[in-house]
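Fold it.
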Amino acid sequence: MKNLNPLFYLVAAFISLISSCCQPCNDPALIKPATTGCNTQIRWEYAQAVNHSNGTMTSSISIVPNPTVPINTNLTDSTSTTVFVSATDTMCGIKCISISGGFGLTCISPPPAVGIAIDGKITNQNDCSPLTTCAFKTMRLSIPNLETYMRSCNLPRVFSGGGVGITAIVENTNGQKDTSMLTIQFH
C-alpha cells in the first residue's frame, strides 16, 4: 500500500473545516430568504417603569393586541414610557424597519385659562440589514422615554393632554412593505 502525501491530508482537513463551519445562514436568528410565502408580521409592545416615592421601582411590558385602538396613560413625573416595534418574517426575512411620527399637546395657563397647542416630530429611526445571502427573521426598534415629548409646557402653563402617533414601516427581502400605526394618549 502506498503512503499518501501529507499535503493531501492537510488539503482534505482544510476543505472539511471550511465546509463544516461556514454554512451560510447557520444561525437561529437568520434564514435563507424564500422568494414566495412571505408573511411579514408587525408587533408593538408597550412598557412603563415607575419610580415610587419609597425608592422602589416597578415595571411592566405588554403586547399591544390591537394597535388601531389608542393606548391611554397618565403623565406623571415618576413614570417612563417606552414603545417597541418588531417585525418578523420567518420565510423571507426582514430587510428594513423604520419608525417615525409626531406629537401634540395642550398647555393651559392659570385662570383665565388660555390654552396653547404644541406639536412636533419624534426622532426617526431606521435599521436596514447589510446582509446579502441571509436575512434576519426578526428586527426590532424602540422609542424610549415617550413622556419627554409631553413635557414641553413652560410655567405657569401646565400640561392638559396630548399624544404621540408612531408609524412603523417594514420591508422584507422581497421588497414587500407593510405599515402599522400606534397612538398613545397622555392625560
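Helices lie at 6-21.
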